[in-house]
Design brief:
Strand content: 5-15%
Order of helices and strands: HHHEEH
Radius of gyration: 23 Å
Length: 144
């Protein structure tokens, strides 16, 4: 499959999975109520879950926004390259444009893609840090 087909599949996956975390979060209280645990444990669990649910959903929404911006920028690059066919050539893995302005626009697209990739990396680091912090908090609670 070519790049455009891969991009379309990526968008289809984003469309298919973006609503799932919210649906799952909405189902948690329904699954906890019939659970065979004491009522005070249920209340405590749901209190903890509800206190972090909105933040967790916002973090997941941020991830999907980053991935969609990545797909949009790749789409722009594909369209740009399609519109410039015959005005550039490949030398190895390098793209050489006949026009400096075309090369500058192409390089700006690549720079934008790198910026989005950096946002994605920063998001992953933030999620990893939050996960570690949550584990630390749980361990402290268990030591009481």
């Amino acid at each position: 499959p070519n790049g455009k087909q891969r991009l379309n599949r990526m968008r289809e996956m984003l469309d298919r999975y973006e609503s799932k975390p919210k649906q799952g979060a909405d189902e948690i209280p329904l699954k906890i109520n019939p659970a065979s645990m004491a009522e005070d444990q249920k209340r405590e669990f749901l209190r903890g879950f509800n206190s972090t649910k909105d933040k967790g959903l916002a973090d997941i929404a941020e991830f999907f926004q980053i991935e969609r911006s990545f797909a949009d920028k790749l789409d722009e690059l594909f369209n740009y390259m399609r519109g410039r066919q015959g005005r550039y050539r490949f030398t190895g893995s390098q793209v050489l444009f006949n026009s400096t302005s075309d090369a500058n626009i192409y390089n700006q697209h690549l720079s934008d893609i790198r910026t989005i990739a950096q946002r994605e990396d920063a998001w992953r680091v933030k999620m990893q840090r939050q996960g570690t912090d949550q584990i630390d908090q749980m361990q402290k609670l268990l030591k009481r």
